[in-house]
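Usage

Read records sequentially. Each one opens with the input sequence:
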Amino acid sequence: MGSTSVHGQFDVLARLAKPVIQGKTKVAGIRLENTRLMRLLELLMQGAGGHLRKWTATRLHEAFLDAYNLKPKDYTLTRLRYDVRKLRLHGLIERLPKSHAYRFTEKGTKLSILLVQLRKRIYGPLGFGLFRTRPNPQLIPDSRFEKAYLKIEKAMDDAIALMAA
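and closes with the structure output:
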């Protein structure tokens, strides 16, 4: 007999949460509660307008430490490389040919926005209280990526308002 959930194959969050095997190495899944990885996705999305292609691991590491006011011992370059590898193995980013630079895949762009918005707008407020600061839309650079992000953010506001009614 079939499954009781006809949409099981579409549960992207459950699939992302599962580990991926590469050779003999098991790489952990991507979960909303992984603050470090969600912060990395958010930082990468801020650079997705073109700056991402110019970042080496060292520059990305420096940007992460600066953005979250961390010391190198709090988030090592080795840990960053593991996180980038995790994003690549889960299909969110891909390495540009003949370089050490990365870009979001089409799937990765959509899933990254979804993950960050779910964490920021639903998981975060439910898990950590209802306080949050929101960016000023007038200060965000004008790109297709940021426009899509703000459009989804507004849709999430609308969905949350409907759930509260």
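Summary fields computed downstream for this record:
- The mean pLDDT is 79.
- The chain has one domain: 12-164.
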